[in-house]
Amino acid sequence: MVRDGRADLAIAACVDDHDLDIELVATEPRVAALAVGHELAGREVLSTADLLTEPAPRWSDSRVVDRDYWLGNPDRPADGPVVRDSAQLLDVVALGQAVALVPASLAAMNVRPDVTYRPVPDAAPYQTLVLWPAGSRSPWIARFVQTALEG
Amino acid sequence: MPESERSPPYRVRRMVTAKPGVATRLLLRICERFRADPDAPEIRVVLSGFG
After folding, report:
1. Which of A126, B27, B39, B43 has the fewest other C-beta atoms within 10 Å?
2. Are B48 and A141 in contact (CB < 8 Å)?
3. What is the ipTM score, two decimals?
4. Across A68-95, average pLDDT
């Protein structure tokens, strides 16, 4: 949407940066979201290898560059239910239909009795990026990015 | 134009998320700063990822 002019900026987690300028504004670990009764929920810490055979949710608009990131491992098949937002994602996890990698902050803000979270230290961290058209000279875009970086 | 007829320039038009995440809180903080500046233009921002 930024590339075709429908948006001036984007705040995103993962992106193909062609024709875009990018600034990293936050990084945090990712954790695995599991149904409380899942066999892996009994472990204190997981690895991306532990998730290889677990069904992964598929984002409705996901591209290849995003898909590998969300799966945590390119060898993991994306064969779980299609989801459109975080609420749907946690619902399919709670139903035992998928195991998802989510940012630790999402886990902290979405404590629910039917979902548990476990650290996955070898998963690539969740990044919050600000993106805008490459080479933009807009002072307001510059100010937006500067404000984002002020924390 | 009376203030009451002006469209609020920095509003979140659509939000689909479980609860506001890092990106949403970041955007709302930036909106708050820009709202305080009467010369600030409308800026279209898209949120992607976990919001």
Report:
1. B39
2. no
3. 0.74
4. 83
Q: Can you give the residue range of the structural domain that contains A98? A: 30-124
Please classify residue B15 by burial: count the beta carbons closer than 10 Å to its beta carbon, then call 0-12 exposed, 13-18 middle and 19+ buried. exposed
Residue B3 φ/ψ, nearest 5 degrees: -55, -35
Q: Residue A66: which pLDDT band, with cuts at 50, 70 and 90?
A: low
Q: Do B50 and A1 touch (CB under 8 A)?
A: no
Q: What is the longest distance spanned by two Cα atoms in chain A?
A: 53
Task: Give me the domain span that covers residue B30.
Answer: 1-51
β-bridge pairing B45-47 and A82-83: unpaired
Could you give the number of structural domains in chain A? 2
Nearest residue of A to residue B18, measured between CA atoms: A87
- Locate A45 and state its tokens: 């810490």
